[in-house]
Amino acid sequence: MALLESQVLDTAQHVLVCRNKDCEKNCQFYCNPCHKPICEQCRDEHQKSPNTKNHEVVPYPERNRQLPVEKCRDHPTKDLDILCDQCNVPLCSKCSTIPAHKGHSFTDLEIIYTEKSAACHQENNKIEAYFIPTARDLRNEIKIEATNIKTIMDDIRSSMRDEGKSLKRLVDEVTSDNTEQVNKMEESLREMLQSQDKTYQDYISYLEDFVTKFHGYLSFTPLKNNPIIFPLTELFKIQPIPETIKPVPPNFTAGHYSKEDVAKLVGRIAIPDTKPENRKIKPMETASTQLKPTSKQTKHEREKSDVKQTLSLSSSVTKVREYTVPGVDSVYHISLGKSGRLWVSDRSGNLVQTDLQGNQLQKIQTRGELEGYHTVIQNGDLIYTDKENKVGEGKVTRYNNTGKEIQNIQRNSTYQELYSNPHYITENINGDIIVSDLQKEAVVVVNKSGHHRFSFTGQGSTFYPKGVCTDLLGHILVCDIYSDTVHLLDQDGQFMCLLLTEVVKDPRSVCVDDENNLIVGQSNTNTVTVYKYLQ
């Protein structure tokens, strides 16, 4: 059943009309016992009929879910429609009479199904409103922390490299000093050895001279005056061999160090002895408290809720008033401000504020053109885009109140592009984000988590959606410049009716004022028209 509902939501092309025979009016109500959507007139007749006057008739969005049809296994002609409270099994009415269930109590299965469906929707809303956004916030926190961790690690790596370079410079300096000392020692020892070498060289020359003399004496023939016949004491007086010392070279004692010693010198990495903190998960109560309005807002919301309970779709659209907006040549987008004041823009970038009588209050020159580029936020401030260049891709981006980007919506669950040329955007009462896309010829709706709910592509072969807005009942109103009408959808994308047929030409912009009237602007005139379509 859930799958079928999902499929209906994705297509969202069903015309919501009264199911009474020969009646094709717009459906606004639902008879729970009959499981039939009905119009206002048929509701009145339904409640007057003796056969159905006690039936529960509710507004269509508040209807009971129809129980899926499933035949009883033991009684194939009967549908499962009750639950045995004791056995907790679905049964048909005939099963309740068999001995196995004698004396047991039974509950209408449709009541249980409706309650459980409501509980599922409630849990689903809780998931989409709290769990998914909170988990996404935690993911964003992790992404920021991952970036910070990388920065910290890069700083540590840089410091380590600097320490290594510093130590290497010191090692190079010490090595250079030691090398220079060794060079000086070598030079000193070499000078000493060279001096000793010269000493022995001179001594050898001295001895060679003696040998030469002795040879001369022996070869001298005349004995007269030959020194050899004289005492030889003086002749044999040879100088002793000079004594020299051996060089003592230095020793090198290698440094005794380990990797641990080096680690101490360059620093070490240490993990702080700190217990990791648990991430702060925003409690659900806090999430709801943050959304709790002020007492003034509570009163306003209460008034809106009271009005909502009495509002319904009117059987006809009535023109209330119209007025001309000075300072613009057309009305391409309308934003509703406080006290019913409007901000209106045209194709030339003129952005004008006007009161309910059409008097110009302010004018701003912007770079806006054919799209809906401005809005008024809750405190009454105007915000608008003042573009230089168009973004090359279609997407929706959500920002928080400080301007920080918190969500990007661009693709569906199958990674297909959701948008091609988004022009106008609004938010529904259930948090859905609604975008009109001219190139896709569709109104694309995603929930607050960014998951695609449905796309509405009009009722005919061609659909050119422009301005889009929602009302207090969650209706979606969208301009179609091809058929010159305004399409009215319920918040699940089911087509309800066409508004303003053969009334306006080229409707470009819509909004709903504080009195629940529809304000329509057109591209061919600077006149704004106000219509009543709810009662």
Task: Describe the protein's architecture and organization.
The chain is built from six helices and 26 strands. The strands form eight sheets. The chain has a four-stranded antiparallel beta sheet with strand order 7-26-25-24, with no helix packed on it. Strands 8-9-10-11 form a four-stranded antiparallel beta sheet, with no helix packed on it.
What is this structure, in a nutshell?
With 535 residues, the protein is α+β, with helices and mostly antiparallel strands.
Notable characteristics:
elongated, 6 helices, disordered N terminus, four-stranded antiparallel sheet, single chain, alpha+beta, 535 residues
SSE inventory with pairings:
Layout: H1 2-11, E1 29-31, E2 36-38, H2 40-48, E3 57-59, E4 82-84, E5 89-91, E6 106-108, H3 109-219, H4 259-266, H5 284-290, H6 295-310, E7 313-324, E8 333-336, E9 342-345, E10 350-354, E11 360-365, E12 374-376, E13 382-384, E14 396-399, E15 405-409, E16 422-427, E17 433-437, E18 442-446, E19 452-456, E20 465-470, E21 476-480, E22 485-489, E23 495-499, E24 507-512, E25 517-522, E26 527-534
Antiparallel strand pairs: 1-2, 1-3, 4-5, 4-6, 7-26, 8-9, 9-10, 10-11, 12-13, 14-15, 16-17, 17-18, 18-19, 20-21, 21-22, 22-23, 24-25, 25-26
